[in-house]
Amino acid sequence: TTKYPPSLIIYDLKTDNLLRKYVFPEDQVKEDSGFANIAVEDTDCDKTYAYAGDLGKPAIVVYSWEKNDSWRITHYYFNPDPLACDFSVKGHNFSWTDAIFGLGLSAPNADNFSTLYFHPMASYNEFSVSTEYLRNQTVADDNFDAFKLLGSRGPNAQSSVSFVDRKTGVLFYSLVNLNAVACWRTSNNKYPMKNQGRIYMNEETMVYPTDIKVDYEDNLWILSNRLPIWMYGKLDLNEVNFRVFSAPVVHAISHTACDITPRSDILEKFVNKAKNITKDIVAKVKPNSSTTTKPITVLLTLSCLVRFLAT
Predict the structure, then answer these.
(1) Would you say 58 and 120 are in contact if contact means Cβ atoms under 8 Å apart?
(2) Are 92 and 110 in contact (CB under 8 A)?
(3) Please, which residues have CB within 8 angstroms of residue 216's CB and are 6 or more apart in sequence?
(4) Structure pTM?
(5) Category of 151 on φ-ψ map: left (φ > 0), alpha (ψ -120 to 50) or beta
(6) Helix boundaries (H) for 154-294
(7) Are 98 and 85 spatial neighbours (Cβ–Cβ below 8 Å)?
(8) Domains of the chain and CATH, by start
(9) What is its main location (predicted)?
(10) Beta-sheet strands, E only, within the chain
């Protein structure tokens, strides 16, 4: 039962004053429509655009602040994949056909257009399109090939929410079946599994990650709420069912495929760690001997560390 039509409600957060309420026109809201996520492109306040994904009747409704108008864009890439509709969360198996769900906007390019990274929830794939094509419905309809398939996250890797940290260019996204949050550096031209990092995974605390954001102080925020357990079972009131996670972005992506630490710095850390491990070994074997180690010993230890990390 729909009590109120889908709307955009815009507040001034400094004064809490309502600036504008925009109700989606009737012809842009279908019988099965459901708007779960929105991405806002606001580097130029007067030319702010909002992109709302319709997971029920696959489409993106684009809203222009300047024009105070919206239009509906459709594409095959917004549709759910019938081979990715089976989910399993915390012992509950179910089928969902949610269409476009995850939306993440990059920093603008020289022409002040961003890249929108998106995916249906019932899908293993990630897609992208420049907002240059979304800002005009006719242009979007006439440029089917502007929408790009980036690649696959692999089996059992359906994702709901996503968000791009514009400073590092890292795309964060949930992995619903795996109770995890992962990442990918958008500076990589390809989207293979080896370029995707695992941020956090926990079968108790990260059950159904439901929202991801990065704030203006470079902190990553994640919410989890155990929604499938509530829908298909029963929440245990003696357990913690709702959680808020936070970490600095650079710490969250450290030692993952998304790490932005220069390679020379990482090698220096390994060498220093190798030296410390060697000193500890020497101290245990010969407690009264000098802690000075031969270079060959350090190299052997470093070699072991590299082989360990490679596995």
Answers:
(1) yes
(2) no
(3) none
(4) 0.83
(5) left
(6) 227-232, 249-252, 263-285
(7) no
(8) 72-253 (2.120.10.30)
(9) secreted
(10) 7-12, 17-23, 35-41, 49-54, 59-64, 69-73, 86-89, 92-95, 100-105, 115-120, 125-130, 148-152, 162-165, 170-175, 180-185, 196-201, 209-214, 219-224, 243-248
Q: What is the mean pLDDT of each run of 10 residues along the chain (311 residues)?
A: 89 96 96 94 92 97 97 97 96 96 96 96 97 94 94 95 96 97 93 92 95 96 96 93 97 94 61 72 63 48 48 46
The per-residue pLDDT for range 127-170, each reduced to its tens digit, is 999 999 999 999 999 999 999 999 999 999 999 999 999 999 99
Residues 271, 277, 278: CA angle, nearest 5 degrees? 90
CA 296 vs. chain centroid, Å, equals 43
Q: Which two tokens stand for residue 159?
A: 């994702």
Q: Which amino acid is at 193?
A: M
Name the DSSP letter for residue 311. Answer: -
The mean predicted confidence, pLDDT, of the chain is: 89
Q: 295-310 and 263-285 helices cross at what angle (nearest 10)? A: 120
The whole-number pLDDT of residue 276 equals: 75
The residue with tokens 């790490």 is 259
68: three-class secondary structure by DSSP: coil
